[in-house]
Fold:
Amino acid sequence: MNFRIALLAGDGIGPEVINEAVKVSDAIAKKFNHNIEWKSALTGAAAIDAVGDPYPNETHDVCLSSDAILFGAIGHPRFDNDPSAKVRPEQGLLRMRKKLGLFANVRPTFTFPSLLNKSPLKKERIEGTDLVFLRELTGGIYFGERGRKDDGNTAFDTCTYNRDEIKRIAVKGFELAMKRKKKLCCVDKANVLESSRLWRETFQEMEKDFPDVKVSYEFVDAVAMRLVQWPNSYDVLVTENLFGDILTDEASVISGSMGLMPSASVGIENALYEPIHGSFPEAAGLGIANPLATILSAAMMFEMSFGLHNEGASIREAVNKSLAEGKVTKDLAEKGENFLTTSEVGNYLIELIR
Ligand code: IPM
Ligand code: MN
Structure:
């Protein structure tokens, strides 16, 4: 098969980890007789510096004309402590999600047998953890009305959802649960928020269409707690944008390192794949970034966008083997010793894939 893939490396460690994902994807393409045409485009602080816009129209056009998008990370500390900055890298990401209609953010959390002792949680608590968050990505408080009043002394952000927005992410959740353990958790704050009550109402109405799925309704604060107590009790969790942002960061470290978990953001026409971790600017250029989250995101791309499950499995197998053999970056090395650089990990995976 022939694919066109948009490559948005972004900021910080983005370019380094993207580089390894490209190397591994090319090795997979070679092995399975595919042809990938990569098309790079600017995003984030890098795009602000080059053209003054974190998501230029040209980048949007590249995304629209591609079969999938592979994304690194965006963000730069020089914007973080400047609340008055008019243009911010994150605005690019949000605009991209909205303009491409990427409403469903798929964020899995799974464990690697060889890394169980790296988790901040006890081994017996996390063994067998294999859950997926579906985070709504184009609505809620991220995109609601916001502003200042009273001469700037009062600020507000609003969380708005309509039934159709809830329904389309819920359908994805029910369908995913059907393919997995048929367990779905609707995460909300329906004891306080009206938008959450509409979420719950919508899910309850849809239960009859998916009689085989066992649905639970849990408050977001309780889920934050249970996630570290019994992560292996969950299967599919669906939630709104901000709750999902917070809970998926919490979930992402269960596997042992921030540098491990991949994600997909899918819409009707387009799909974007990216590591869950951020741009980690302190590590940029040092060769210590863990490329596995991005490489596993490429595996999700082969599986979800192209339906190529053997290709995805081949990447996952190589990743598992490299971890088991201790061919890892600094974040995962025993006593922080004998680690490989970012590109050495990529090279090792390529050898395994060949
Ligand atoms: C994420 C990030 C973004 C978000 C930021 C960079 C805008 O934290 O993808 O989770 O909040 O959605
Ligand atoms: Mn986040």
About this structure: The mean pLDDT is 96. The longest strand covers residues 2-10.
